[in-house]
UniProtKB/TrEMBL annotation, chain A:
Recorded superkingdom: Eukaryota
Keyword vocabulary terms for this entry: Ubl conjugation pathway
GO molecular function: cullin family protein binding; ubiquitin conjugating enzyme binding; ubiquitin-like protein binding
Entry-linked Gene3D superfamilies: Cullin, PONY binding domain, EF-hand
Organism: Panagrolaimus davidi
Pfam families from the UniProt entry: Cullin_binding
Keyword Transmembrane in record: no
DCUN1 domain ranges (all copies): 1-183
GO cellular component, one term: ubiquitin ligase complex
Protein name per Swiss-Prot or TrEMBL: Defective in cullin neddylation protein
PROSITE patterns documented for this protein: DCUN1
Protein purpose: Neddylation of cullins play an essential role in the regulation of SCF-type complexes activity.
GO biological process: positive regulation of protein neddylation; protein neddylation
Automatic annotation (TrEMBL), chain B:
Gene Ontology CC entries for this record: cullin-RING ubiquitin ligase complex
The entry's keywords: Isopeptide bond, Ubl conjugation, Ubl conjugation pathway
InterPro entries reported for this sequence: Cullin (IPR045093), Cullin-like_AB (IPR059120), Cullin_CS (IPR016157), Cullin_homology (IPR016158), Cullin_homology_sf (IPR036317), Cullin_N (IPR001373), Cullin_neddylation_domain (IPR019559), Cullin_repeat-like_dom_sf (IPR016159)
Residues spanning the signal sequence: none
Residues in coiled coil: none
Family: Belongs to the cullin family.
Cross-referenced Gene3D superfamilies: Cullin Repeats (1.20.1310.10), Cullin, Chain C, Domain 2 (3.30.230.130), Winged helix-like DNA-binding domain superfamily/Winged helix DNA-binding domain (1.10.10.10)
UniProt superkingdom: Eukaryota
Record GO terms (molecular function): ubiquitin protein ligase binding
SUPFAM superfamilies: Cullin homology domain (SSF75632), Cullin repeat-like (SSF74788), Winged helix' DNA-binding domain (SSF46785)
PANTHER family, A to Z: CULLIN
Protein name as catalogued: Cullin family profile domain-containing protein
Keyword Ubl conjugation: yes
Amino acid sequence: MFKLYADDPDDNLPGKIGPNGMFRLLNDLKIKPDDRSVLILAWKLNAATQCEFSKDEWIQGMKEIKCDTMNELTKFMKNSASQIKDPESFKQFYNFSFDYAKPLRTTGLDLPTAIAYWKIIFVKNQRVDKWISFLEKEENRGVTKDEWKIFLDFLNTVKEDFSDYDPEDAWPVRIDDFVDFCKESG
Amino acid sequence: MDYGNNWRLLKIQITNILNNEYIHTSFETCYQHAYAIVLHKQGEKLYFDLEEVFKRHLIEKVRPSIINASDSLNKLIEARKEFYDSLRLVRDTLCYFERIFINQRRRHFLHIINLGQYLFNTEIILNSNVCDRMKMVMSEMIESSRKSENWEELKASSKILLELGDGNRKIYEECFEKIFLEKSAEFYKSKSQKYLKNGCEFVKKISEILNMEEKFFHFLDPKTLSKLKNILIHELITSNIQSILNMEHGGIVYMLENNCTKELNILHSLIDRIPNGLNFDVSSIVKYIRVRYSKFLHKLNEILVSNNFIDYVESLLDLKNETDIFIKKFFNNKNQLSVKVQQNVCHLLKPDPQIFSLYIDHSLKKNSHENDIFEVIGKAMDIFKLLAEKDVFEKFYKKHLAKRLLFGKTSSYENEKHFISKLKDECGISFTQKAEAMLKDIEISNDLIISYKNKNADKNEIDLNVQVLTKSYWPISDIYSCILPTSAEVAFNKFKDFYFSKHSGRTLTINPNFGFADLKATFYKENNIEESKILTVTTLQMCILMKFNESEFFTFEELLNQTKINEKDLKRALESMTMGKESQKVLIRTGNENHIENADIFSVNDNFTSKLNRVKIQMIPAKNKKDKSEENEIFSKINDDRKHEIEAAIIRIMKSRQKLIHNELITEVTKLLQRRFLPDPMVIKKRIEALIEREYLKRDENNLNLYHYIS
């Protein structure tokens, strides 16, 4: 299967499936590139870079998810949500996404990319939408790994109405600002 | 054997003993009866019958006698003694029974005396009717003792009750303690209401009552005594404290205004006894101080706005004096209250570090004080100690010091050194290191110039004075270079050679923003009259003026290109020579706008004249905008420095503690830095995040609020 999509002449990435190969693969799987299952697949493959799968990653990953044929892969993609059902797996998937999305030599993730990924990961979540609209209003500052990780803890532990939120705790300043923003906008 | 008969006789005997009546039957006869019963294995029946007799006696005879007695408690004690004495006789009467029957069945049956005691306990001491009677008796006793102020009876009775429980306090508490405490609380409440009209009287009376009560009840069981003390304090002090503090008649304000020191001391000692009393006390005192000195404080704020630093500092010193006197009068002890009041007053005074730095600058300049400068500095240090943001003062002080030293405005090096030594005493060397280095630079430069001049006495055409500054010590930024006139350049290079002969491995750069030059200027008037003047100008002005030796006219743009002076500075320098007072206009410019444009043409103003031979050409005093921008620059530097200091503090603390929760880290950092400034917790939080990003710290896996140090 790997050979079908690897070494695509337009990609110029010998021994790997590059962006073009990916595109063809997703086409065959009948999935859109910004569907969450793609990200889940990348997580299961433990892919190091966006839009690239190395041969080792592919082979190891396919073993992990026990898929040998296109049919099995298609099924997997359809049921990908079940892979992240329990909180621990979700957390791992979520944290993986940061490293995956982040370009190699930087320490942080630029804001537009972070927002795009948040949109993909949290399919329909009111609080995340509010978070995104807050971020779009404030200055265009990158997202650190700490902020990314803590955001998930924030979603999981703090109540909807922020009644148990204490700004004097160790929450990152950005989240303090978000809570103020939510309180002000009612 | 007939049990009934045997028992009947025994019963009569026992009953007689219990009733303290004459015993008819002999000891031996009873022994035989008991023996018979035991022999015929009726021991158990005997036991229960005996128990029944005891019970009957206690319930039907003893109990009523106690309840109906007027002095029930003593009656109880008496009854108990009687009963116990009887028990012994009964036991002796039934000694065979006890020895043979009971002894062998110790698991199931009590010995006669123990049985009797147990029954007495349950039927009398723990009986609710008896208890009620006791409560009533004690209640009356408490009330009458209160009236007569004689506590002897109560003392004895309470001891008895305690002992009755035999380790169990329940009886004591039910029948005595509870009632006693309730009645005492009521008593205190009514007393405090009585005296609550006037604060001064109140504190005196209340403290009397306190002392008396504590003396009276010294005999009480310690637990009861401590409960009583709590009630005393609560009823007399805690409930009333707010009213006392706020009261108009004889409240704390009255006491302070009328020097009622004795009453104040009593009040303080009373407040001392309630939990958190200190805070009450302190906050009302500070409130009072704020009101009392409100005029001063108001005036101070007005002066602050007007930027008149001399008035400001002097008013501040006056206010400090006043408050010092006040504090000395009323809060002179080393106790907690005094310390807290003094701290709060310091906060109240809150000197502005920037204005204060202006005052210091002014004091250290020439011609400012005829008075003893040492005295002035001494007083100023009192203000310095009150500063909350010492790092702001430090930055401004250094800036001013640099200007004083470089423009020769300081009154004397001795005075500067004196002030620095005072700062060192207060803050340590880190504060004053650079300042001392700056002074040293100047002193070294002075010596350098002397030896330079000695060496090159005749060779000099230009009389050159140089101050060599070590860059890292001086708060001078942004050295823009420019092209010097040739003669100046040559002189400077000669000095450079001399300097490098003494020191190697260093670079010397001229800073054209500082320095002065004396130029001989010749103005060609009409009728071929030449008028010469000596102009004292800044370095930049010198560069510009010297150009006019090469050519008569220059456009702004040409000057810009040929002197390579930074545009802003060039404009300022030209403005000072063309757009100021007549006595300063050594140049003419074409151009009508009120700012300099590129096409403006400059030339020497031959009409320039002055009464003086030596004319100082001032730089235009910086417009407010420039001043503000310099000030803003300093404040942004202060903020940057604070960020670094906070980060350094965080790292230091985390390194020694290895792991710490968020709130404690904030507290520790604040404690560490508060001598210099008060860090904002949000800023500290941001710095923590930055350090996490740079992997000096990390969060704990399971607890978001816990940080670990990464070594």
